[in-house]
Write a structure and sequence with these properties.
With 94 residues, the chain is mainly alpha-helical. Helices cover 41% and strands 0% of the residues. It has helices spanning 8-12, 19-32, 49-56, 76-80, 87-93. It starts with 7 loop residues before the first helix and ends with a helix. The model has no long low-confidence stretch (mean pLDDT 93).
């Protein structure tokens, strides 16, 4: 299954994933604009190393579907909401 295009129903049926972790995966995917690599799944709250190993055989990541940040046009508050940017980083970029 391709994780960036999967809906919640597809994700919840993966081995070891329940409705709460499904919601966290989808929310984190939305904040990122899509997963660029499998390792980003480890950043989802509640994702254990053992669960990640089980999922690697069931999930694929197509990085071509990632929504890129329009860095020259984005506003401060939108950039600050991204998980990889804090107040200081966003302020430095803007």
């Amino acid at each position: 299954m391709e994780i960036n295009s999967a809906d919640s129903l597809s994700i919840v049926f993966l081995k070891g994933i329940g409705p709460f972790l499904t919601k966290r995966i989808i929310n984190y995917r939305s904040m990122l604009g899509g997963f660029h690599s499998m390792n980003q799944l480890k950043e989802v709250y509640g994702m254990t190393d053992s669960l990640f190993l089980v999922l690697t055989s069931q999930i694929q990541v197509n990085s071509n579907t990632v929504i890129k940040i329009p860095i020259n046009a984005i506003d401060f508050n939108s950039l600050r909401k991204h998980p990889y940017f804090n107040f200081q980083k966003a302020q430095a970029i803007i």
